[in-house]
Design brief:
The protein is of the alpha+beta class. The protein has one domain: Roll (Pnp Oxidase, Chain A), CATH 2.30.110. The protein is 19% helix and 34% strand. Strands 2-3-4-7-6-5 form a 6-stranded antiparallel barrel. The radius of gyration is 19 Å and the shape is globular. The protein starts with 18 loop residues before the first strand and ends with a strand.
Length: 173
Amino acid sequence: MTKRPAKRSVKTAKSQPKADRPFAPGYGIVGAENGKGLLPWAWVAKKMNRCRTFWLATIHAAQRRPHVMPVWGVWLDDAFFFSTGHKSRKCQNLSANPTCTITNDNGEEAVIIEGMATQAEDPAVLDRVGIVYKKKYKMDPRSMKEPIFVVRPKTVFGFVEKSFPKSATRWKL
């Protein structure tokens, strides 16, 4: 009897979002026909993983004005996860309007993420978030018994001040 080789699962590389130039008239940003100067998608993960404190912008539900607060969070599987108190202004705002923006804390190498926040509920994902969060902040956000949100990007911008405008990059997901 001939023994067949065991089937191997083929892991395909996750498709990378297509990079292009943001629309910003008057800033000297030119097209990306040849891709020269565009930042790679891996740059986003690197910057997000190195950042400790992020800025979260939401829309105040009643007053229809911006609300910006610092948050801790982790970048995992091309998404941003953070926790906040269920009575917090951030949570109230996101319950009324899940549209938000997340930025890292480095204006010289800025990442700006626009997306929709939803409450993360998958136990397997929350386990992974807890592990990454604990490694980064020495605590597991699940221990607070408060909502953990995930922001899946719709549009991401990256800017490196020293090479701006040549490095100005936009990814649409």
